[in-house]
Protein: Magnesium transporter MgtE
Organism: Thalassobaculum fulvum
Amino acid sequence: MAGDDSIEGPDARTGPAGGGDSTGPGGPGADGLGADTVEAVAVAAAEAAAKKRKVKKKDLKAKIRQLEAEIEETRNQVLDEPLYGMTPKLEAAVIRALEQERLPVVPRLLRPLHPADQADLIERLDGDDREVLIGAMGAAFDPEVLVYLDDTVREEILAHLDEAQIARFLSVLDSDDAVDLIGELDEDEQARILQAVPAKDRVILEQGLTFPESSAGRLMQREMVVVPAHWTVGQTIDFLRTVRDLPDDFYAIYVVDPAHRPVGELVLSHLLRSKRPVRVSDIMRKDFRRVPAAMDQEEVALLFRQYGLVAAPVVADDERLLGVITVDDVVDVIDEEAEEDLMRLGGVSEIDLYGTLWDTTRSRFPWLMVNLGTAIAASLVIGLFEATIQKVVALAVLMPIVASMGGNAGTQTLTVAVRALAMRDIDTRNAMRFIAKETLAGSLNGLAFAVVMAGASVLWFGDTRIAWIIAVAMVLNLLVAGLVGTLIPLGLQRVKVDPAVASGVFLTTVTDVVGFFVFLGLATLVLL
């Protein structure tokens, strides 16, 4: 039996029947104690093995329970965190691997992430760690990560890559992303890298670089599906099934004439619902929107917003089809333009977040210098009433309130005006109505806060004359703030200057000067 093979030692060996050589002197024969011993030992061995298996099974169950608990804990942690983006735990693991120089671990940590999440991580690292991470990724680095990076960080990453790598990335990326990428390099680098790009891709890139920056020609992608007008639904479907280089994502098929001019747009849902013999010219949409290649990308975004477009063909001056702009590219434009306007209103640039200390300092210096000039202008106005302030100290306490309220009210109006101009919500037809509304809103707020400050001044200084002075100054300054908060951006727009760039500087100057002059001027007339 099974136990016999595992039994060893002299007690286990038995001789022929009737032989006495298997036992010691005076011991029993082979058919007696020897057989019982063998069976007893075998049973003991079997019980020991069974007990050992039971212990192992128990340990295995414990390990399974522990693993299930860890899985549940991990699941709870994931559910507590956003369902997208770089998690703090993974970010800490990558940083720790970089600090401990365990570079082979980095690609394994980043490989499961979406390129956008990898870009988030790269942006959070400092310059040295970024360089180390890119080196650690090696061939595992996904070129699409570059698409999601901030422009400043992307330029820094490109500086660490050799030209052969960049050329390889350009061949892999979509044409619109590739043109955007190579467009950030200087002309000498562009020429060298283009020589290393395959001829087919080089032609597309060189064509894209001929269009102005921030134009529809730069924004469009060349990968699209085009069919002639005489094709049938069946021919089109067969073409889509057999062609090898279809775009990864496309929303419509464009129907062209023999001169390659778009004459219709074929929505995929219409194609799939139609019979095979039907011609595409019979089911295509003829009232589709075309985008000129020279159109500014901000205008393109407004066009998509106005008509709810998902995709639009881009045409040359002679109406030839050049490419297509999709809604995902427009979303990027909207985000970029909104961020740009917001940054300009604050007198800062995108480089402040990801740039070096020197670049950040240098970019902010000009606006701070302009602000210094406006502050000096306000101080000169105050200096005109130095004698009044010396005689009535309460004026020095109250005059910052007047200027501050005017500045804040003007900023509110200015923000609304700049945004409305950017979205083309203000034109010559409704400009006067907008100006009147904002001016009246400023006046009403001025009246409300005039009552508040008049009461506070009486309680504070016990002088009704000061209360009347600050009340009148408050109303006038908030009225002016509402007026200039609309006129300044409209005027700058009229002379082709971006209102988001310079409006804030002029507004601050006007509200400070008017506020101080009205308040201190009235005080001089009434109190002295």
The first helix runs from residue 2 to 5.
